[in-house]
Every structure is written in structure tokens, then in C-alpha cells.
Amino acid sequence: MTMNKTTQINATRWLALGSLGGLIVLGLAWEMWLAPLRPGGSLLALKVLPLCIPLAGILKNRMYTYRWMSLLVWVYFTEGATRAWSDKPPGNYLAMLEVLLCLLLFAACALHVRLRLKNAVSPVPITEAI
User: Fold this and answer.
1) Per-residue DSSP letters for 111-126?
2) Which residue in 37, 70, 73, 102 is a FRET match for 53, CA 20 to 30 A apart?
């Protein structure tokens, strides 16, 4: 069974939106309730604020948002990889989940941009541009 380009683009959009939402929820739950650095929560929960900025762009299907989100996600990947190595359970398991969500988000953003660029119509034929 093959999917057409529009279905693939929509699937990557929803995967990006779901993994971004998962990162936001995980970041808040992790730092406030599940394994905070200090009892009662920590200000490290504010790390999710930059993740809230691209929500509007992804919901509006803006290509530029997918491009810079694929770069921003590596900051959270690095944090997850570092804390997966250094934290004690359950923090290290939450960090591994963060790494997985980051990889999903990056793959969704990269595939979304690639599919949309492949699907885009060139305004000037290549033979005339040369």
C-alpha cells in the first residue's frame, strides 16, 4: 500500500506536532512532578517555553518553522543524552524518552520539508533557467 504525497505530508505534519507536544508535556511533567531536581519542582521547567513558539507555525503548516525546528530540536536531544547518562532513575528513563521524541521530531521535520520541496512546482523550468 502506497501513500500519495499529500497523505505523506499530512502524516509528517501530525508526527511533528505530536512529538513536539510530547516534548512539551514531558518537559513540564519531568521537572514539576516526575523527577524534579528539587522537591516541589524546579525552574528548569521553563526549558519548554522555546518549544511553544513553533506550535503556531506547525499548525499553520509554515515551511520555515519546520526548517528551524529541525535545528532547535538538537538542543533538547543534547540535554536528553546528557541526562540519560548522568541522572539516576527515573530521570534517566525520562531523558531517554526525550531523546526518542527529539529523533521523531527531527525525522518528521526533515521528511516534511523534503516532501514539500519535491511536491512544489518550479516557477521556471530548469531548461529555461540555464
Assistant:
1) HHHHHHHHHSPPSS-H
2) 37
Of 86, 129, 104, 117, which is closest to residue 18 (Cα–Cα)? 104
Domain span at 84: 5-120
In a domain, 83, yes or no: yes
Alpha carbons 69 and 85: distance in angstroms, whole number: 25
Distance, CA of 34 to CA of 29 (rounded, Å): 6
Number of domains in the chain: 1
Per the domain annotation, does 129 fall within a domain?
A: no
Residue 130 lies in a domain: no
Q: What is the pLDDT along the chain (130 residues), one digit of tens a residue?
A: 577 888 999 999 999 999 999 999 999 999 999 999 888 888 889 999 999 999 999 999 999 999 999 999 999 999 999 999 999 999 999 999 999 999 999 999 999 999 999 988 766 665 665 5
Which one-letter DSSP state was computed for residue 124?
A: S
126 found inside a domain: no
Q: Which three cell numbers stand for residue 72?
A: 532547535
